[in-house]
Design brief:
Number of strands: 7
Distance between the termini: 44 Å
Strand content: 15-25%
Mean pLDDT: 86
Low-confidence stretches: 1-8
Largest sheet: 4 strands, antiparallel
Helix content: 40-55%
CATH class of the largest domain: Mainly Beta
Shape: elongated
Order of helices and strands: EHHEEEEHEEH
CATH topology of the largest domain: PH-domain like
Length: 166
């Protein structure tokens, strides 16, 4: 059984994965709201347990939601990947609904590297590809900062070289 949780899109292309820290960062972002909600539901269930015994279902539901969402977020993070090919960049994502975006180097207008405060705490950055098409959603989140900078420089150079060839 293939333990690589990648999907095929009809191409034999090795994909680079994002950092495992990205999944951890996304889980922590989700728990920021769930932990206080869980504590509030648990305290209310303990205080009013004799009057409203079914109130225990609230904290159990929040706990179950937290566990399930954590598993899904971690799996989604592992499904994100990118491949630098000769003429284009291939970006994939998705667990149930697989999505692959192909960005020809000649169509690249500019490449951004963004890193918010939480990303910087984890040493991560997001590479955003901008093309003439407004519908192109080519972002690669969760890259180590050095890899994001390398990818930006590489893509900018390839974009310029292929644009000159048009």
């Amino acid at each position: 059984m293939n333990r690589d949780h990648s999907f095929t899109i009809g191409l034999d292309v090795p994909f680079n994965r994002v950092s495992p820290k990205y999944g951890t960062k996304e889980v922590l972002a989700g728990l920021i709201l769930l932990i206080p909600l869980f504590i509030a539901a648990l305290v209310l269930a303990i205080i009013f347990t004799s009057e409203v015994p079914w109130l225990h279902l609230a904290w159990v539901a929040v706990l179950a939601y937290g566990i399930i969402s954590t598993l899904i977020i971690l799996r989604q993070a592992r499904a994100i990947g990118y491949a630098e090919r000769e003429d284009d960049l291939l970006v994939r994502r998705g667990i149930m609904f697989h999505r692959a975006t192909v960005v020809p180097y000649g169509r690249l207008q500019f490449v951004d590297v963004d890193a918010g405060p939480v990303d910087r705490m984890f040493g991560l950055a997001t590479v955003k590809l901008h093309t003439a098409s407004a519908a192109t959603d080519a972002t690669i989140p969760g890259l180590p900062r050095a890899e994001a900078d390398r990818l930006r420089d590489s893509l900018a150079g390839l974009g310029q070289a292929n644009l000159a060839g048009l």
